[in-house]
């Protein structure tokens, strides 16, 4: 997977531009709030996923602009592709001249792995961040998983809405039965896909972390369900219904599950140092890239958004050594730690504009 051209217009604070990245390391550098992250965010959106910064579509449109337009040309192992995203009241996408039903249809067409500063805290943050990581990873391997997540989310919202009203209208219990049947079926599939991913990525993660820790530590994972797996989600939801009606919220399901990360059998969240937690985050992202290549046959584009300054020299070198032979986009204030990388391009960004390219 290689991006050969990027076009940006009306997107956040980025001035209208077209540029050609190189096939190796591309560094976007400059002071804070100049637009470096906005540029790589624009590239990431072609993965079909939402903004890795959690932004709403309306927040992607530049000040005094009515819409944003993004274009890329990229090569996969088969052909050159051209894609376009228009952001107005929602995002619309075109791939090779064909209008897609939604931007989510780009999932699986253009693959990327993004590593942002917030992800360095994935171990110590709440379970929502770990669920987001694994769901994003599975989506790019199995695009149909995105539809499954969307279906479950809609059913969960419907159920929670019913829980608020059923106390005043008992006839809604029949509707609740129907929703529960559909929601638990989708929820079981989500949990199965997550467990499958963890099982498949653990060998690669162990090997990567062995290198990070110089063979001193072994990483491991455990999927923690919000219900008794022997009982099953359907039975758990049925058993919890009375309390759910009282609390007006669904207490069991993949939206409440978590992933526990261990080093040498000990919980990293509870007992790990800051360095160990960051090493786990690095290992997870490098493993994600490895699995994407293994499952799709395509090397994903790597986006490192302002993370190098957050890591010590050893972890910086480890990352750079493990992303060789991939196209990489790096944002940073001080480019000196990665300027030594051979065969790359450096773009200086100021006020949303590329003012220098070397």
The N- to C-terminal Cα distance equals: 23 Å
The level of helicity is 25-40%
Q: List the uncertain runs.
A: none
The general outline is globular
The main β sheet shows up as: 6 strands, antiparallel
- What name goes with the CATH superfamily of the largest domain? RecF/RecN/SMC, N-terminal domain
- Beta-strand residue percentage: 15-25%
What is the total number of structural domains?
2
CATH topology group of the largest domain: Glutathione S-transferase Yfyf (Class Pi), Chain A, domain 2
Which class of secondary structure composition applies to the elements?
alpha/beta
Which keywords apply here?
single chain; 358 residues; alpha/beta; Glutathione S-transferase Yfyf (Class Pi), Chain A, domain 2; 6-stranded mixed sheet; 40% helix
Describe this structure in words.
There is one protein chain. The protein has nine helices and 15 strands. With 358 residues, the chain is α/β, with parallel strands linked by helices. It has two domains: 172 residues, Rossmann fold (3-Layer(aba) Sandwich); 184 residues, Up-down Bundle (Glutathione S-transferase Yfyf (Class Pi), Chain A, domain 2), CATH 1.20.1050. Strands 2-1-4-5-6-7 form a six-stranded antiparallel β-sheet, with helices on one face. Strands 8-12-13-3-14-15 form a six-stranded mixed β-sheet, with helices on both faces. It has a three-stranded antiparallel β-sheet with strand order 9-10-11. Helix 3 crosses helix 4 and helix 4 crosses helix 7. The longest helix has 41 residues. It is globular. The relative contact order is 0.17.
């Amino acid at each position: 997977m290689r991006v050969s051209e990027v076009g940006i217009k009306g997107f956040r604070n980025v001035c209208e531009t077209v540029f050609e990245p190189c096939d190796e390391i591309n560094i976007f550098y400059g002071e804070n709030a100049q637009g470096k992250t906005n540029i790589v965010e624009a590239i990431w959106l072609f993965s079909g996923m939402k903004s890795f910064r959690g932004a709403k579509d309306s927040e992607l449109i530049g000040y005094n602009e009515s819409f944003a337009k993004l274009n890329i040309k990229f090569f996969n192992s088969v052909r050159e592709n051209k894609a376009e995203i228009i952001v107005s009241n929602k995002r619309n996408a075109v791939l090779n001249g064909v209008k897609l039903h939604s931007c989510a249809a780009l999932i699986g067409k253009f693959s990327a792995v993004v590593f942002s500063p917030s992800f360095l805290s994935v171990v110590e943050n709440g379970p929502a961040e770990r669920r987001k990581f694994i769901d994003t990873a599975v989506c790019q391997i199995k695009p149909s998983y995105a539809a499954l997540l969307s279906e479950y989310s809609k059913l969960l919202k419907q159920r929670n809405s019913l829980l608020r009203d059923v106390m005043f209208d008992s006839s809604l219990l029949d509707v609740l039965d129907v929703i529960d049947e559909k929601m638990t079926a989708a929820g079981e599939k989500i949990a199965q896909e997550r467990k499958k991913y963890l099982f498949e990525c653990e060998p690669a993660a162990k090997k990567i972390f062995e290198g990070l820790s110089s063979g001193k530590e072994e990483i491991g994972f455990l999927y923690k369900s919000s219900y008794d797996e022997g009982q099953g989600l359907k039975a758990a939801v049925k058993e919890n219904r009375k309390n759910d009606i009282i609390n007006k919220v669904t207490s069991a399901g993949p939206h409440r599950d978590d992933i526990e990360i261990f080093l040498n059998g000990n919980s990293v969240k509870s007992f790990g140092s800051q360095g160990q937690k960051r090493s786990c985050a690095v290992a997870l992202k490098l493993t994600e890239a490895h699995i994407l290549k293994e499952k799709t046959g395509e090397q994903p584009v790597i986006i490192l958004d302002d993370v190098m300054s957050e890591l010590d020299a050893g972890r910086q070198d480890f990352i750079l050594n493990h992303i060789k032979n991939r196209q990489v986009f790096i944002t940073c204030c001080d480019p000196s730690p990665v300027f030594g990388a051979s065969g790359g391009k450096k773009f200086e960004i100021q006020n949303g504009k590329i003012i220098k390219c070397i």
